[in-house]
Amino acid sequence: MTVLDSFSLKGKVALVTGGAGLYGRHIVEALAEAGATTIIAARDLAKLEAAAAEERAKGYDVTALPLDLSSDASIEALHKAVIERAGRCNVLVNNAVARSALDGWDHDLEAFDRSLRVNASALFKITYLFGETMRAQKSGSVINIGSMMGSVGVEMANYAGTDMHPNPSPIYHYEKGGMLNFTRWAASILGADNVRVNCLSPGGFFTGQPAPFVKAYSERTQLGRMASNTDIKGAIVFLASDASAYVTGANIPIDGGYTAK
Length: 261
Known about the structure:
The chain is an alpha/beta fold. The chain is 40% helix and 15% strand. The chain has one domain (5-260): Rossmann fold. The longest helix is centred in the middle third of the chain and has 29 residues, at 109-137.
């Protein structure tokens, strides 16, 4: 096998939770372009099916299935459907996230629990189910999609001169920070059976933010720019493929060097 061959995902089955959003759409593109049979799953099946149809029109094998991460039964049904359909799962990308609308941290426990159920508890469950399948296969790669906000606090100066406001709720930072150590923990548990668990922590994707924010943020990075919508694709293929066969328990920031300063 040549080094370029080691990046190929031909013959592999990949599951991506989410798949139609900012990160998910390009994660799906990357996996499909690298040759994986790709399954995408989320609540909005119509939106997912539209994304899958776009990839199938390019000649790629992409299928949409329903998933409600707040439901035990839905997670279990997805696991069963993937194994019945494909016979295996080689790559699990935990990408879907419940975006909390909480403002501040003066809330009752139930308000926080709604976010934690999807972004923490469901993460544990789906990784367990597919992790057990991968253990039986004696191979597999789990990729958790975190955030640079799991490693740093809020840089308030980035918002100066704009009408943008950073979300002052602690929940997203808490969940993404916890995902980093869950990645290390799961890598420890699954590693003996050749199942790898890693995290990607993107940040600073340009989505048309005001010029003062773009300038301040870009200057805070080491590459001097915000991320494009394709910057995550290479890292996804690397971690999903045999090219990263000896990489586990790692976090790879995709933030232009923001968290390295």
